[in-house]
Predict the 3D structure of the following.
Amino acid sequence: MSILYFVTIPLLASFLTPFFKDYLRYISVALNSLLLVFALSFMGDTPIREYISFDSALSISFVLDSASLFFVVLFFLIMTLFSLYHLKEESRKDSFILTNMLLASVSGLVLSGDIFNIYIFFEIASITAYILTSLGRDKKAYSGAIRYMIIGSFASIFLLIAIVTIYLNLGTLNLLTISESFFTISQNSQFLIILSLFIGFGIKAEIFPLNFWVVDIYQASSNRVNALFSAILSKAYIFLFFHIAYMLHVDTKYLSFLAVIGVISFAVAELSALSSKDIKRIFAYSTLGQIGVLFIALSSNSIDVISGAIFLIAIHSITKLMLFLSLDILEQKFKSTTIEIFKNFNSLFLVVIFAIGFLSLLGLPPFGGFIAKLTILNGLVGLREYLFVGAILVISLIEAVYFFRLLGSTRVQEPKEDIEIELLPKVLLSLMAIAIVYFGLFPDALLDISKDVATTLIGGADV
Amino acid sequence: MLSSFNQTPFLHDVITVGSLILLTIGLVGALTKKNLFKIFLSLAIAEASLFIYFIGMHFEVGKVAPIVTQEVEKFSLNMVDPVPQAMILTTIVIAIAVLSLALSFVINYFKLTNNMRINEMNELGEGK
Amino acid sequence: MFNLSVTPLGNLFFGLTLIVFVSLALVNFASFRGSKASDFKNNSSIFLYTLLFISLGVIFYASDLITLFIGWEVMSWSSYFIITNRAKLKTSQKYILFNLGAGFALLGAVVLIYSFTGTALYSDIAFSKVPTALHFPITLLLLITIFIKSGVMPFHHWVVDTYEEADNLFSSVLSAIISKAGIFLFILMFSQIIGYKFLEPMIFDIVAWLGVITSVIATFKAISQDSMKRLLAYSSIAQLGYIVTILSIFSVSGIEAGLYHTLIHTLVKLLLFVNVASIIYITGKNRFSELGGLIYRYPILFIMLLIGIIGLAGMPPLGGFNSKFLIYTTLLEEKKALLLVAVMFSSASAFLYCFKLIYGIYLGQSTDEVTEHKELPTAYYIPQIIGAVILVVLGLLPSVGIAIFNPTLISLGFEPTAYSSLFELNGGFASFNGGAIMTLFILIFVAILSIAFSLKNKIRERRDRFDISYCGETPNPTVNLHYGYGVGEELRRISFIGVILRNSSKEYWERISTIVKDSSTLIKKLYGLTVQNIALLTLLFFTILLFVGVK
């Protein structure tokens, strides 16, 4: 029962693809749900450390603490829902391989205990993301993939610079050792490392001013891929960013800098969404905005605020999965994703799904997003960060403009086409919507888990 | 006289300067070239500069490569640190994979649009 | 986290909610199959109405701040979905943005109070724990919420268009009960939770004046409206202005007067909006210029509107006079002479739009534009009768209201008001006997009615409806003199009122909207950069930070 199964089993399954050509979708569901259950079985046992090697000084370590477990569970949950959604469609080899690779690499990112392993999984995840973007096989998809690769290569270069500097100064790759002896190296080297990590991880974690590439990529990819990007990939990189930051014991000036960047990110993203006419891009901007809020919360170094951030991560992943899958239904019907399509469809079910999703993103009760926002705001006031509280409230109002514009256009009196939705997607979308409402009304269990994760995240080195 | 050049700090400085030049060439190329192949080529050069820097900085005069052969049967302190070499080998492999992926994208894109210049790639953006 | 408890204040407001919702539910269900007569077009409307009702219950019965906020926001978005049924996109955007602004301001205040006092439960909050530096921001945030919700100027921009474009019956819900959420918040927060000793009196002097100025401006705007629902919308703003003003007088008589006016206004607006909805349903017209002379076909509706008008204008012998009386006596007691003058000015001018309402629809001669006369479902009379009956009862027995409010006053920590008999209303300075006044008015009414009937044939002659005697001037044929039609244009010739009528807060809000939109288009360009530019920016960022950090 090794924690490495999270990485190896999906990879193994990808290699066995040619043998199960027609049953891939069932295998997908079975695999993901089994691994989810497997992950949940670890719940009381953390932290767990595993080593692969012969000589302990040069070993590769994997660490499962409550923070990594939370993310592993989240990723497998999202992927289970995703593969269930595709149960009635044809099995496709490419999406099977790619989703498994994504799972393996993202689990590796989260579980890895030394920095070079992180680099390897980082690259695997990037490659998977590039190919996922290009799945549409049309001009847009390849154009997006090429752009993504150029920016991604920059991220890799900066990450490599950081790793090189770390090894040159400390002679070790193990995260625990690095975090214990980080303060021994010169100030300039420390600064170079932290800056390179900021740029390298920041490009992938999609924070201002490194996220100008994101919206085009979302436009290039199909909606289902966007759901995976939004729900799984960006969350993994955000966790990585802050996990490393707290392990390296960065100083408070850097954390305040991150919070300011978070506010600017939120403001810029929501303002840009206001005048956007393509719903895919609007959802991308919304994701960037929420990432901004997450940065504000995660950089506060306080358990209360960070638990709100973890809660928000869980709710946001489910919400974006739901929204992108619903948008996919609309796109298949109308072949376009401009905001006009919201005026032309007639489906009470979809309107309710979109309403629940948007209201939760805005942080309105009684949905999960409200609890997350309330916890974060409460915590921030406790830290006397009034400006951030005010900024979040004002910018949420701007967010309300475009979300309610979309909801209002569904009620406009224009000729509407009916939309038929299959039973399985309906059931899954309802399940996600019910989950959002459930966590809004009964948040305590998830809040306790979030507090646990937050404590581990900040505690950092003593895990 | 040549032996004065055979000192570790001097060699490290040469490596540093050399990699910085290569890195600059690579990054400038990635930022200014318009042909897609040339951009990826420049990125490969930039990554190569980092590989050279890393390996070069661990080289010390008088030490040998960390290869266990029939004569030298186990790791001795006379060998250069093997970890960076292992790391860079892995990284080179990854870089090759990424580069070939990039080339395949470029080829497929060219087949669809007959365009190899990055400033004429305008399929994405607001209102498309 | 979700705490409810039954309190007298909650009972009072929820009682009003019950009256409004139950009577309207009867109207909507009775005409459900009858298409346009009902607001309940399908199951989702029923669901939204129920959700709105529950959220109002949550607001009024909440016993902690978070529950209050949850109810508040659910009220905002459920009413939004009901409004979008008929309203234009721009109007519903205005509605939700202003109301969410109010909601977020409330959230800011709640989070501040919660964080410093450590608890959100009303009973446990000790406002003394909040540092003095934060008293003003919290008060300001709460005032913003209340102003937006109650339509105090200049935050009233959303009210008129929303009332006009929403479903006809739902406008009565908006005006009668949703607008009272702000009033409830005022009393709850300032009287109960925060307490007067922590509030700066100067701020509330300004608030009182803002309320009165709102009333004056809104009254004159109401008079000049041609659309029936817009007139009622402005009238609602004006009446809520009175309530905000009188509640800012931090005394027990102020709160009593405010509560009484809330009660009266809810019933009056329920009556008036349903009446107007009836007329719109019957004739299909919603402008005064197209209506007139309907008293002959619909005398019962006329009488209902008449009772409503008497209540709205605050005339004896009906209940509306009680609240006006209490307002005036309170202002006299507190020696707020200028406020009293302003309120009286606004109140007197209100007669003009009250009369316009009844004249433009029912009196005068009938018009040619009205071609269809649909059959009105009898259920439409229910809310009107309820409103009318309660107004009459309160007129006869004014201290019934005092008896209703006493438990609330006790729960807020004040002394209950004593009253000698239900017929008599004591306002401190003066008192009057409702029964005596009602008898007097009935006698006078009967007397005048009999005189009018006896002279019926002698004093009537046929004229064109636009031919009205005009004193002093000779109007040319293009000047429109019908009272229900041309009042607004003539009022513009009076300089003071003309200034009010010509200006509007619309440009300022539109300007804010344009600024936001333009900055959005500008900032969006960042996300349209080419890849190489993005990479260049990243490198620049790296280099700049490198030079900043490396010493």
About this structure: Chain C has 21 helices and two strands. The beta strands of chain C are 424-426, 431-433. The CA atoms of residues 402 and 418 of chain C lie 8 Å apart. The mean pLDDT of chain C is 86.
